[in-house]
Amino acid sequence: MSDPRKRRRHITWIVLNLLFGTSFIAAIALGSVALSVTDITSALLGLDRTGFARDIVLNIRLPRAILAATVGAVLAVCGTYLQGMFRNPLADPSLIGVTAGASVGASVAIILGGGAIAGGLSLVSLGAFVGGLVSVWLVYRVATGVNGTSVATMLLMGIAVSALAASMTGLMDYLADNESLRRMSLWRMGGLDGANGSRALVMLFILALMLVAMSRTSHALNTLLLGESQARHLGVHVGRLKNQLIVWVALGVGVSVAVAGSIGFVGLVVPHMLRLCVGPDHRTLVPMSALGGASLLLLADTLARVVLSPTELPVGLVTALIGAPFFVFLLLRHRELIR
C-alpha cells in the first residue's frame, strides 16, 4: 500500500508544480494586451528597450500575479488548518467569522471615505483587517473557558458573529449612497485590481510565516485527527495547538481579505480535493494546498481579466463559479468516503 501512495503523492507534486508554473506565466502573459514569453523574459531581464512591456510586467502584472498566488496559498493553508482542527473536511475559513467581520470593517471604512494610507494600502484594507480581528477576538473570548477552547462553541459563536455582521452590513447597505453602495458590493465580490508591490510583499511575508509554522504544527495536527483525548495521551498540548491555529487563521484570512476582498471556495475546495488525492498527512497536505490555492486563484484572476476584456470581472465571482460545481462533483464522486 505504501508504494501506490508514494507514487500518487509524487505525481500530485509534479502536477501541482506544473500547474502553478503555467498559471503564473499565463497571469503575466494574458490580459487586455497579450505578451509573448519573449516579451516577459526581456522585461524581467531589463532587455526591453521601449519600456512598454517592461512597465506592464513589472508595474502591473507581476505584482498582481504574486498577490494572487500568495492570497490563494494563504487561504488554502488556512482552510487546511481549520479542517484539521475541526476534523471536518468541509470546514471553511469563514466559519470563525473572520470574513464577515472584515466585511463590516471595510463597509464602515468605505462609508467614511476610504482614503489611502501609508505603504500602498487603504483605509478600507485597514478597516477590513481590524474588523476581522475583532470578530476573531469575540469568538475566541466566548469559546475559551477554564477547560480550554471549545471547538463546538467556537463554531457556534462564529455562526452568530457572521449573522450579526450580515445584519450590520445590510444596514449599512440600506443607509449608503449609490457610490458607496457600489464600492461595498464590488469589494465583497473580491478583486485584485488594487495589487501593488507593497501588498504583494505583505502577503509573501504572511505566507512565509505560515509555512514556517507548518513544521511545528503538522505533526500535532496529524495526532489530533485521532481525537483530542488520544492526542493528549500522546503528548500534544491540545489547547496550545488550538490557540496557535486560531491565531494563524485569523492573521492569514484577515490580511487576505484586507488586500483582496472576500474570495470564497479557495480555502474549502483546495484542501478537501487534495486530501482525497493524497490523504490527511498535514506534512504533505499543507504545502500542496499552498500550491493548489495559488494556482486556483491565479487561473481565476486570469479568467476574470480575459473573459470580458477589457472589462474585468470580480475574481470572487470566478472562484465561486469554478469552485462550486467542482466541489459538487467531488462530493458526488467521494460521498461514501466522507460519511
Return the CATH architecture: Orthogonal Bundle
Principal-axis shape equals globular
- The Cα radius of gyration reads 20 Å
**Count of discrete domains:** 1
Span between N and C termini? 23 Å
The poorly predicted ranges are none
CATH topology: ABC transporter involved in vitamin B12 uptake, BtuC
Number of helices: 13
The average pLDDT value, as a whole number, equals 83
User: In CATH, what is the homologous superfamily?
Assistant: ABC transporter involved in vitamin B12 uptake, BtuC
Oligomer: single chain
CATH class: Mainly Alpha
- How many β strands by DSSP? 2
What level of helicity do the residues show? over 70%
Q: Any descriptors?
A:
single chain; 339 residues; ABC transporter involved in vitamin B12 uptake, BtuC; two-stranded antiparallel ribbon; 13 helices
Structure characterization notes:
The longest helix has 35 residues, at 52-86. Helix 4 packs parallel to helix 6 (151-175). A two-stranded antiparallel sheet has the order 1-2. It has helices at residues 2-29, 37-45, 52-86, 98-112, 123-143, 151-175, 178-189, 197-224, 228-233, 238-260, 266-278, 282-306, 315-333; strands at 144-145, 148-149. The protein has a single domain (2-333), classed as ABC transporter involved in vitamin B12 uptake, BtuC. It has 339 residues and is mainly alpha-helical.
